[in-house]
Design brief:
about 150 residues, mainly beta, about 50% strand
Length: about 150
């Protein structure tokens, strides 16, 4: 069960909120989700042709990951967030994700801070990426389309 679900072309903006649900929030099936100036203790998930913004948040998921972009998401902007203490991955992008990830702080003891799988179009600009018990950034499965510029690792 997710704290917030936006689906089937619905549009949702959540701001100045605290989400304690370990399952976090999700946008599915062409929905739009904007998460602004909030504290989340579960992941933010975008799937299947979704779009939106994740900006000025603190995201700490003790259970899984911080942000997941999968299934041909388009026009996702992830900006000025602190993503930390995630067990598995700070940010996962896969299966055709399209996003701009800029000016974020990724830190903690998770397996990997950023994981990119398969063909995608994700640009990382000016992020601070610290920690990861195995990797700071992991690119697998063809990972074509990842651009990394001006990041601190």
């Amino acid at each position: 069960e997710f704290a917030v679900v936006s689906r089937q072309k619905a549009e949702c903006t959540m701001s100045d909120s605290t989400v304690h649900s370990e399952n976090g929030i999700i946008a599915e099936t062409a929905a739009s989700l904007n998460v602004l100036k909030s504290s989340l203790y579960g992941p933010v998930v975008f799937t299947d042709f979704c779009r939106g913004t994740v900006e000025d948040n603190t995201i700490a998921s003790k259970k899984t990951l911080g942000i997941s972009l999968q299934g041909r998401t388009t026009g996702i902007n992830v900006t000025r967030n602190v993503i930390h203490n995630n067990v598995a991955v700070g940010l996962l992008a896969c299966r055709g994700a399209e996003a701009l990830v800029q000016e974020n702080v990724f830190r903690g003891k998770g397996r990997t801070q950023i994981e990119l799988q398969g063909p995608l179009s994700v640009r990382f600009d000016n992020n601070d990426i610290h920690g990861g018990s195995l990797n700071g950034i992991l690119i697998t499965g063809g990972g074509a389309g990842a651009v990394l510029e001006d990041n601190t690792l």
